[in-house]
Each structure stands twice: as C-alpha cells, then as structure tokens.
Amino acid sequence: MRRIAWAGAVALLWVGVASGTRPSAAPAYEWVLPAGFPPPDVPADNPMSEAKVTLGRHLFYDTRLSGNGVQSCASCHQQARAFTDGRARAIGSTGEQHLRGSMSLVNVAYARVLTWANPSAARLEDQALVPMFGAHPIELGLDRADGWLRRLREGTRYRALFADAYPRDPEPVTRDNVVRAVATFERAIVSAQSPYDRYHFDRDETAISESAKRGEILFHSRPLSCFTCHGGLHFSGAMGSGPPGMMVQLHNTGLYNLAGRFSYPPNNLGAYEVTRRPEDVGRFKAPTLRNIAVTAPYMHDGSVATLEDVLDHYAAGGRTIEDGPHRGIGRNNPNKADAVRGFTLARAQRDDLIAFLQSLTDDQLLRDPRFADPFQSHHPAPRR
Amino acid sequence: MTRRYALRATLLLFLAATPLAAGLAQAPEPTVTVAGDVATPLTIKVDELKTFPRTTVEVQEDGRTLRYEGVLVGELLGRAGVPLGSALRGDAVATYIVASASDGYRALFSLAEVDPAFTRNDIIVADTIDGKPLFAYQGPVRLVAPKDARGARGVRMLQRIDVVRLKK
Predict the structure, then answer these.
(1) Considering only CA atoms, which of A72, A23, A25 is closest in space to residue A51?
(2) Which member of A220, A232, A244 has the closest CB to residue B62?
(3) Domain B29-165 = CATH 3.90.420.10
C-alpha cells in the first residue's frame, strides 16, 4: 500500500511556510491505495482535506440532517453493506418508499455519472442536494429555508469541525460547506484492498482462489463478456476515465417488457425520464461490482434477490415475468442491450463466477474506522 | 516378472488410461499461429517470443499508465513472408489481418496499420504487463494497439493472426 499526498495541499502548505505566515490550507490528504491504483480526480473548487473528511463523516452520520431528525445519509448508505441499505427500494425519513434502491457509495469519487439513470448528474456536490431537499420522493426532507443549519451551529463540536475544515470562512456553517464536506467524505470512501486487489496489484497469487481465477476468465470471455458493461478498475463502465469524448453508456438489460407505450414499469423508466428519447426507456447505469456480494438485492429496483438470480437473469438474456402487472418477456425488450445475449453455464462455472465476484469484497473497507459512525463509542472521532 | 511387479504394471496401465492421468498430463504449450495468405504459416510458442526483437508500449487506462512488452505484429508477419515495407504496395495494400482470441473474439487491422515501415502504430503481441506475465484472463499473450483511443481491438487471449488478401 502507498499513501499519495494530495499535491495541491502540499504546495499550499509550502507556500504558507515559506512566506512565514501560518499555513491557512488544510493538511494534505493522503489516499490509501495500492501501487498502480490511481487516485480519483477531485474538483478544483472542493479539494480534499482530512478536516473536511472528518466534518463530512460527522454530517453523513448525523440525523440532524433530516427534517424530522430520524435519518442521516448513513440510514440508506450503511458501511457494512458497502454503503447500501439491504432494501429493494429505499425508504425516506417520512416513510415514503422510493422507486429505486440505494446505490453504493464505494469509489463514487471515480464515477462519471451519478444516480441510477441520469446521464447528466456528475458532481457529488450537486447530487447531495437531491436527498437533502428532494420532495419527490422525500428522502432526508430538509427545509429549503435552511433552518436546520441552526441545529448545527448550536453545538461546540460542529463549530470546531467547520472551523477546521474551512479556516478562511468567518461563518463556515453554511449549506454549501455542508454539501462540500459530505461530498469530500464520500470521495474518501475508496475500495482498493479486496482480495482481487491483492491478487492484481500486489501479485499475491494466494489472495483469491483458483475458482475465482477461473471466474475472472469467464467474466472477461465470450459468451458472458460481463466486462462489456462492468469493465475497468471499478467494474463499471460509468466509472474511471473512459475514452476521451465518449459518453457513459446506460443499459437496458431486459428486466421487463410490459405491453403498452413503455416497456418498463411507470415512473421508473430509466434515462428516458431525463432525455425523453424512446430508445432510453429502461436504460440504467451499470453500477460498480466492487463489494457486490454484500449489496443485495440487485438491479435499480431491487427486484433480483441474489447473485444466483442475477446470473439466471443474464443467462436467459432477460427476465420473463409470467403473471401480474409486470408480466412480459424481458429478453424481447426492444431497447435491450446487445451485450445481454444469454449463455449457458455449468454448475461449476457458476460457482467460479460467483467466487470471482466475492473476491471483490473489501472487508477492510466495510470495517474501516475512518468511514464508521463517529457518534458511536467504538468508533470515536479524532480528538479535537 | 514377479507377481508383485505384474500387479504394479497393471496398476500403472490402469492409471495411465484414466481421465485423472489425462488431467495430469502437461497442457499443450501455448502458441500463436500466423496463417492465411502467407508464404510460410507459423506456429510460435509463446516462450519463443522472448527471443524475438522486443518492443515496449505504454497505454493509458483508468487513469494509470500500463507498460506492455512484446513483439511487433509486423515482426511476426515478416517471418511468415507477408509483404511489408517497400513490398507493401499495389494490390497488397488491400490486405488485412484478423486477430482471434481463444473465446472467439476477433478484431481486424489493415496490413498497413501493423507494418512499422508504413505507420508507427507499434501494435504488439504482448506477453508482459509492467514487467510481469499477463493475468490468465488477458493472456498468455494479447494484442495491444497503443494508439487506439478505445481498447476494443486489444484482443486478449490471442491465439492466431490470419492474413487475408482481398481478391476481386
């Protein structure tokens, strides 16, 4: 493992020292990554700092960031589940059930597209406003007049945390600074220490089983070619640095094929809801497969319960629903991605593929105190 | 032959005929084949590539720089008698190659694209990445086209290169 100092912060510190003034920049942020694993790009207007990560971590776990004080970001993004919630579809602070499941925040710093199906959502700072203030559905349910900021200003702990994170701001407890800190904490959640990573980056041949190695070959070979949509370092075509100028591809995997105008269930039509192009009905992001073994249930609406069921879905080239309002033969969906062609796997091959997917579980991340609830006694916040 | 030796010989014969023994037999040595419209079809052992002139290329992928090393495709084609350099002219320019993987994946290049005298694409058959052997899902050898903006022609698990000369 290596630690990569964030060069910009180092430079600012050096300037401060060289000029004989008190350094006003936050200490350098150090990414903990294996050699060869690149750090993410960070927006120039919201650089990383340890102080901002610490503040963001508190805010992320603080129920004062919901209108009725019952939920925090962590309610739907739980560390032990790779920052998902184990539900098919998320439930907001007022009990409203969402149409889609909570997405993993792991390696979200590398995401070129955020959310399940909005090809234009790219900045975490912008996206954070949706759960905070969105009303359709209500998630955290904060009031837009920002009365909730008073609750943060009242405590000495937050006054100190904000002052450390934003030392140049005379009144740092603002909505923008909350959003910046939460986004910074989310960027810090990087999974790069799974058995797969030890096998690939440390060349530890014993890190993953022979079965997982065979599964990796299946994953990258025809007829499965899972990498077509789940490619790259993060096992998601929507993450990492793609080819220059190439748009992120969203995919219709043949989950549904309803009769009528739209082939997917109402109000959950994928990229179509943003683009209004008929060919985008049912197109959703291929999420990261890192830690996929702990993020069940699967798909945008959590309608597939297990990894075995996921394999069944793709092996059939789409899902067939016999009865009910969603009945239809998904493999015949007119927008279905060419990559979802179907395949046959022997039992042993299925086991190999699942062993490979399980090798992507980063147990260290799931227990890392840096990302744990600072309000719990067994995960104390850094001393201030 | 004593009874004890006869028993051992029978046992050895039995074992040799079982699938277990077949599994223990050495897997065929990995090779790359150059065939099609060539003067001298070749089947080259992957280990032999180490003795050929070597080329290193760098590829940007996922925000990191990967260094692949191997043998220029043009070098292999030259050994198979494919017209290159000054001989690559006239009708021969309408020649292409198809690189095929063990899983059936294929990619096509024009012959001129892989001729170092024609273009400096440095398209190689790589057997190492960052100085180490390729992973099983990549190799033992793969094609690397470092100037391609997308990686789709970087055929992994490369098995053969077929040369096809267009005919009227």
Answers:
(1) A25
(2) A232
(3) yes
